[in-house]
Amino acid sequence: MADSETPIRFGIMGCAEIARKVSRAIAIAPNSTLYAIASRSIDKARQFAVRNNLSEEVKLYGDYNDLLDDPCVDAVYMPLPTSLHLKWAVLAAQNGKHLLLEKPSALHVKELDKILEACESNGLQFMDGSMWYHHPRTAKMKDFLSNLELFGRIKAIHSSSSFTGTSQFLENNIRVKPDLDALGALGDAGWYCIGAILWSMNKKLPTTVTALPAITRNLAGVILSCSASLYWDEGKTVATFYCSLISHETMDLAVCGSNGTLHVEDFIIPYEESSAAFSFTSGAKFVDLHIGWNVKPQEVQVACKLPQEAMMIQEFSRLVKGIKISRLRPDSKWASTTRSTQLVLDAVKNSIEIGFKPVQM
């Protein structure tokens, strides 16, 4: 039976701005359909439906519980404030809904473990909303990093994720409110940096994590920018990252190996939907008199038939369908990836709180 004949029916809990992008992705993906939208009020749900030209067949709910009680909803995408994730994610799992949870997934790993346990005990698929993992470019970059001849062993990594929030954003957005998203820039932008570093290291946790003193907070104490270093005893590998809500737009990842280097400037959101690029250099040396290099970086272009967010939905729906139709077990890779990211994020936060001292993992 074709995927389009048995689509996974999504409910979206919350009408955050990112939900607009994901609702479009659900519509584009070949094996999913948007079945319902829930907000804290029916008026907000209606406004979301009108603004995004949703079909009149999409059900609208003015209460999150009503969506969770709907037996036709297979999976829930949840872009709620992080402080609400524990309550509603656990309730979603208890109601048998597969869970696509927006990042950061939780305020700390103890909360995340309760969410993951609820999903696991009910046989449900979990995935966080990090879209870049699903772009075909990401697999191509991994091929290069895994090539011992071209790239060698990883020696150093740097990642940054930053943007300049408007004055309205810095005053009113949930990401700067301690009661809604207390992790601030660390949770919003730092999540990507930490995820990219761990992806480069095949999810191997660092030995130590140390936050750096260059940190900016708002008057409510929420982090607006911060940075940290990660160190692995095995291989003597070091990584650094910078995340900010008050700096120019960056989405950089640079990985330096013993034989090569990889650079990508838009790893979180590609410059274009239809294709994305990265560059690499291998075997680079200075020419005689050090007046140039013997090689130039090579650019690799990777075409993408679907936007990366639609590929995320497609993969998530494929896993859900396997559980629903073929009685397969959930793919634990995605829960493991999220938990590793959360553990390092917690360590950075802990290092900040104890005066930027190293935290052993």
UniProtKB/TrEMBL annotation:
Q: Name one Pfam family in it.
A: GFO_IDH_MocA_C3
Coiled coil: which residue ranges? none
Chain ranges of the GFO/IDH/MocA-like oxidoreductase domain:
151-262
Source organism, top-level taxon: Eukaryota
What positions does the domain Gfo/Idh/MocA-like oxidoreductase N-terminal occupy?
8-127
Transmembrane regions: none
Which family, according to the similarity comment?
A: Belongs to the Gfo/Idh/MocA family.
Spell out the PANTHER family in the cross-references: GFO_IDH_MOCA-LIKE OXIDOREDUCTASE N-TERMINAL DOMAIN-CONTAINING PROTEIN, PTHR46368
Name of protein: Oxidoreductase
* Organism, as annotated: Abeliophyllum distichum
